[in-house]
Automatic annotation (TrEMBL):
Residues 356-590 form the ABC transporter domain. Pfam families: ABC_membrane (PF00664), ABC_tran (PF00005). The chain crosses the membrane at residues 21-46, 66-91, 145-164, 170-188, 209-229, 249-276, 283-301. The keyword Signal does not apply. It is found in: Cell membrane. This is ABC transporter related protein.
Amino acid sequence: MKKIVNSNLIRLFSFMWKDGGTPLLGISYIVALIILSSQQFLFNFVGALGLKIVTDSILAKDLHGLFKGLIFVAKWFGILLIIIPIFGFIYECCIIKTTMIIKENLFKKVLSLSLDYFEKKHSGDFMSRINNDVAIAEGAYSWQIMMLVMAFISGIGSASVIFYVNKMLFLYGLVIGLLHFTFNVAFVKPLKNVSDKIQSKLSEVVQRFSDIVSGAFVIRVFMIGEIIFKKFMQANLAVYRLSLKRVKYNSILAAYNYTAGWLIFFGQIVIGGYLVMKNDLTFGNLMISVNMMGSLVWLFGSVGQFLTNLQSSLAGAQRIFEVLDIDKKYLDDTEIEYNCVPMVTEINQNSSSICIEFKEVSFSYSETKEVLNDITFTVPKCAKVAFVGESGGGKSTIFKLIMGFYKPQKGEILIFGRPISCYTVKELRSLFAYVPQDCYLFNGSIYENIRYGKLNATEKEVIEAAKKANIHDFIMSLPEGYNTKVGDRGLTLSGGQRQKIAIARAILKDAPILLLDEPTSSLDSESELEVMKALNALIEGKTTLIIAHRLSTIKDADIIYFIEDGKIIEKGNHNELLRIKGKYANLYLKQFATKYYF
C-alpha cells in the first residue's frame, strides 16, 4: 500500500514538471510550499520571543524592554504579512495550473480512446472521474501536503527551541507526542478503506444522475422513474452510510485530540511551573515553551490525520491514473501503422474501379457469437449500395469496421484497393462522411456544428452546404441565424432539423465515401421527404453506403445486400430482389402492406 501511495503521490506532483508542466512551475510550487509551510513556526517563534521579552520586562518593571518587545513583534509580523500573501498567490496559481494540466491530460486521453472502450463503460463514470476525482486529487497538492510539511517544519522547529530552553520540557513533549501519534495513526487504514469505498459509490451516484439526464424521455414514456430513483437511492444510501462511518472515525479523533490538547497544556504548566519555582526555568522561557509546545504535539497528532486525508485524495488520483493508464489496445491512435507497405502522401482513389471490398471477413465483439461470418462483397466507385435486414444482423458492424473502430479477426478489407490496415486512422476517416440515425449536435451554434465537417471552411462554404441540405431558410428564420445555440445534443431542434444540419456537415466535409446509417428511420413522412432531398444533394458523385429499414429510401440503389446472421443471403437491385421473391421481397411487402403481383 505504501508503494502505491508513494508512486501515486510522486506521479501527481510530476504533472508540474512534465505532461504540460514546466520546471518553472515545479520550482515556484516548491518555494511557495516551503515558505507557506513555515508561516506557523515563524509566527509562533516571533510571537514566543516577543512574549518572552514582554513578560521578562513586565516582571523586571523595564518599560524600555516592554516597548522593545512590542516593536520586535510589530516589525517581524509586518514582514511576514507582506511575504505570506505574495507566496500564497504564487502557490494558488501553481495549484490552478496543475489542476488544469491534469484535466487536459485526462480529456486528451478520453478523446483518444477507441469506440470499443466507450461501449463497455458508463458515461457517468467518466464524468465522476473528470469532475469529482480531479477535485479530490487536487487536495493532495493543495492544502494536504502543505499541512503535512507545515506540521513537520513547525514541529521540528518548535522541538529545537524547546530543547534549547529546557530538556525536561522537551522530553515531556516527545513522550506525549509519541503517544498522541500512536493513537492517531491507528485510524489511518480504516479511514483509507472507507474513503476508497466512498469514491467508488460516488461514481455510481453520478452514473444515476447521468441516466436521468440522458434517458429523460425513456424514463417518462415508460414511467420507470420510481425504479431509477430506487437505484439512485441504493447508491446514495451506500455513500451516506460510508460517510457516517468516516464521520464516526473523525469524531473520535477530533474529541481525543481536543481533550488531549488541553491535558498536554495543563501538564506542561504544572511541570513548567515546578521548574520556575525551583529557579530552573525563567517565566519568560516558560512562555516560549508554552507557545511552542502546541506545534510539537501537533506534529505527532496531525501526521496521522493528514496521512488519512492524503489517502482520500490519492484514492481520487488512483481513479484518474486508471484512465490515463488504459491499455494501448483501447487507443484510437491516429499514427498507428500495422504491418504494411510504407505510407504514401496521397491516397490514389483512381487506382481501382472498386471503392470498398470485404474478403471473407469475420468479426465478433466477444468469443460467444460471430457478428459477421466470412462475409464477402464489393462496393463499386460512385455506386449507391444499401444494406438491409433484421436488427442485429451485422449491418452497423460493417460500418464500424470500414471506419476502423474495430479490426476483423479474419479476412481483409480494402479501400481503393489498399488494405485498411495500411491506413492511419486519420487517413482512413478522412475518406468518410457519416450521417447516423440520431445525429449528435454539440452544445454550440448551428454554424459551429456545420463547420465541424471542415474546420477551415469559410462562412460562404458553410452557408452553401446549408443551402444544399435545405436547412438555410430555416436557419435564417431564427432570430440569431447561424449563431443560434442548439442546446445539449441539439434537443432544441426537431429531428428533421438536426438531421439536415448533420447532412450539411457531411456535405461540407466533401469526403469521397458516404456512410448513411438509417438517416430517416426516426422521422415522419414529411420530414423524411425533406431529408431525402438533402441526401440527394449529398450523394451526388459519391460512393454511398446506406443502412436502411425503410426500403422506400433505397429503391434506386445500384446494389442491395440483404444481411442475416452475419451473412449476405441476397444481392441485387430493387427489381431483381423482388423478382426472386426472397427475404427482401417479403420485407418490402410487409412494409407497404400490399400484395405484389409478379
